[in-house]
Amino acid sequence: MTSGRIIFLNGTSSSGKSSIARELLDILDDGVFFHLAVDSFNAMRTKRALGERELDDALRRTRRGFHRSIAAMAEVGNDIVVDHVLSEPWRLLDCLTVLPPENVLFVGVRCPLDELARREQARGDRPPGLAALQYDAVHAHGDYDLECDTSTASPRACAQHIRDFLPHRPRPTAFTRLRRQLLPAGV
After folding, report:
1. pTM score, two decimals?
2. Is-contact 21 37, C-beta < 8 A?
3. C-alpha to C-alpha distance for 86 and 63, rounded to whole angstroms
4. Which entry of 26, 29, 30, 39 is annotated as an active-site residue?
């Protein structure tokens, strides 16, 4: 069985990842793609109030489970569009450990801070300043296969750019390069 392709969208909150993912599902016509979003996993969690440490532990387990669900879906041949915020270094390291690097198209979804702040205010469902807190950390690793700027291109245009680039993924992929750079040999 052939492992599925993974289009991995990484960007801050309100950068446009979910909008791009929805567009990708609409225009990708060479397979069946599933949109796996970290926000969807968070929404499945209990709603009762948790203490700070308990919440931190739950969020870490949630993220680790999310990464492994991506790997499991791809392992059995499903094509995946991932919508994630790699705002802590361990998240990227965990993804590099569990995802097949040769099958990942790593896409940086960028947007200027002033536009992110405007979007957060318009949405009203995120804490103000969340994207600003994530901004430097999310792209700190500095290597992507492809990047898009949602302040200058629509979600549909970004999705079309990704679709057109997908058959021409570089070898080695950004995940392969990052894995060599960031993980100990043999992992």
Report:
1. 0.94
2. yes
3. 10
4. 39
